[in-house]
Write a structure and sequence with these properties.
mainly beta; four-stranded antiparallel beta sheet; 0% helix
Length: 141
């Protein structure tokens, strides 16, 4: 199995037919001040493999801060069922929602392993919004 797609977004879902819908892909988070929490970030994965890889595949996701320290950790598994006759590739989607604690600015990374093997890293840059310029008395808005 390998990761064919890994993105961070505002919202995602997988319909009953297995079609993946992703809304608001981003690579940067702006916060007013630190520490902060980014609510309901979605990490979207599309796993692909060969027909011979049906079955259960453990998935591990570790979010690391800019220093490489673990912030969050989630593990689970993806079940790949028997595909129809003639289909040689299998795939499965996963949507994981996280409330992400952000202690400081820098690049945070979601490291993704499948079947115990590192497969992908998704970086997210975190920055503090610049302070608004002070208004001088009598200025026109």
């Amino acid at each position: 199995m390998h990761v064919g797609l890994a993105v961070v977004c505002d919202h995602a879902l997988i319909d009953q037919a297995g079609k993946l819908s992703v809304i608001g892909i981003f690579e940067r988070i702006w916060v007013e001040r630190f520490p902060a929490v980014h609510p309901r970030l979605h990490l979207v994965l599309r796993l692909k493999g060969r027909r011979t890889e049906i079955g259960d595949h453990p998935v591990l996701i570790v979010l690391k801060d800019p220093d490489g320290n673990q912030v969050l950790r989630g593990d689970g598994s993806v079940q790949i069922g028997e595909p129809p006759a003639g289909v040689t590739e299998v795939e499965a989607g996963a949507v994981l929602a996280f409330d992400v604690p952000l202690e400081r600015a820098g690049t945070y990374t979601f490291d993704i392993s499948v079947d115990g093997e590192p497969q992908a890293s998704v970086p997210v840059a975190v920055s503090q919004m610049p302070a608004p310029a002070p208004q001088s008395p009598g200025s026109i808005h």
